Amino acid sequence: MSKKSSIFTTSKKYKETAMVYKFTILSDEVDDFVRVINIDAEATFFDLHEAILDSVNYTKDQMTSFFLCSDDWEREQEITLIEMDTDSEYDNLVMDSTVLEDYITDEKQKLQYVFDIVSDRAFFIELGEIATGKNLDKAKCTVKDGDAPEQMYSDNIQTITSKVLLDDSFYGDEDFDISELDDEGFGEEGFDESMFSEEPNF
Fold first, then answer.
1. Closest to 119 (Cα-Cα) out of 74, 94, 149
2. Are 123 and 17 in contact (CB under 8 A)?
3. Which whole number is the average pLDDT over 101-126?
4. The domain 14-188: what is its CATH number?
5. Residue 112 above 80 pLDDT?
6. Is the pLDDT of residue 58 over 60?
7. 3-state class of 118 per DSSP?
8. What is the pairing mode between strands 19-27 and 65-69?
9. Is residue 77 within 8 Å of residue 90, measured between CB atoms?
């Protein structure tokens, strides 16, 4: 059994009803940046990826990746935009075939969305609320405060090509130095984690 299978199991108590997830998204680069996205629990990580890019007006020609994180923001299971060769101990998951509710079942679940693979820059995401008995046909951004950080540093622009092969160091934890984070798991610029506790807006 893979490590993923033993850690990220589907919660049966939520499976018998429709659900909407409320995700709060923050940046450690821009203090007043906040996005809140409501999305159906049966949507895929690709749907969430698209909703995030739309909410920040980023182009959709770059490699991105999600990481499920521990309570201390340590990266665990990765969900990639396209299928990648990897030596990771976790399963190889791809966004468009991975359903949110199969891997995210608890409020306060933390994720990172790496939007700049080259420089290892990411948004920090927390599942703030699970609204049961509701569904959404399409993800909706309900809070849009502050300007998003620059999508790519100008000297690191890299455009997706069909099934592009990237160096393994672009993924995983090889270049991720947890010692650079403060006690609450964020960089020196940081952000106000209390924003994750704002009231839902379903």
1. 149
2. no
3. 97
4. 3.10.290
5. yes
6. yes
7. coil
8. unpaired
9. yes
Assigned token pair, 6: 């033993």
Q: Contact 149/29 with Cβ under 8 angstroms?
A: yes
The pLDDT, as a whole number, for residue 92 is 87
Three-class SS of residue 38? Answer: strand
Give per-residue pLDDT as tens, 13-31.
Answer: 445 689 999 999 999 999 9
- Tell me the torsion sign for CA atoms 119, 106, 179, 174: negative
**Structure letter (DSSP) for residue 147:** P
Residue with structure tokens 């994750």? 196
Domain boundaries along the sequence of the chain = 14-188
Assess whether pLDDT exceeds 60 at residue 200: no
Helix (H) or strand (E) holding 117: none
Nearest-angstrom CA–CA distance, 144 and 54: 11
Mean pLDDT of 26-55: 98
Give the number of residues written for the chain: 202
Structure tokens at 5: 């299978």
Q: What rounded mean pLDDT belongs to the chain?
A: 80
